[in-house]
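During the reporting period the student researcher (J.K.) took over the structure-prediction task from the postdoctoral fellow and processed the backlog of single-chain submissions. One of the processed entries is reproduced below for the supervisory committee.
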Amino acid sequence: MSKENRKLLKYSGIIFITILLTYRLPHDSYSIIQYLIPPIIGENSVIYLSGIVPLTLFIVGMKGLFKLERFVGKSKLLIFIAVVLIFVPAMKGTLDFSRTNYHSIKGDGLEAVDIEESNMSINSTNDEMVISINLKLKDYSRKENKFKIRVYLPESISDYTGSEFYDLDKDYYTHGNRGIYNVQEDILIKLNNNHEMSQLFDSRRYQEDIEYELYNSEESVKIIKHGL
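J.K. obtained the following structure tokens:
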């Protein structure tokens, strides 16, 4: 291998490490770097330092690519766009493909299903509290999965409602092959009084974790969504 190709491999590897550090862990909303450098939670603010290391590595990798002889005289902007729009997605796709093969070899069912995105919002109408759950599920298996979803609410909400979790009504299906499936459900809870509801909205629930459990008669898997 020529010296030039070794440099290309080196700086491409640095960018790949950046992607690996920021790739979400299975059944967890945190990446590796977020566990190594967790956010600093203050009274009214959250400071994220975990992005500094990947950003520094990415800059080192890009600067190295810019210096390669094969790219001398070429637009740095075009090289950057090519890396961001082609190289980075291809690397992420490789990680996703590897995960699919891993679950396929093990014959996993629900273990292969994960939450790609999640959002929970709360509104009150008259004497009811409405908790809206929005999820994007991604199935890394190669087969169909049928399951129900249980939502473990943030501690401040469960203390208010007196229930640790709520089961969503529907049965859900995914069909493997890294397909994306949307879940949109509302949980209705009767209110005791508006004063308690006001206290709930003033709580630090956004800093608390939420757990989603996917389950059927044969297996279950819990997925954690960390607070801010």
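The committee noted the following: DSSP finds six helices and ten strands in the chain.
J.K. will present the remaining backlog at the next meeting.
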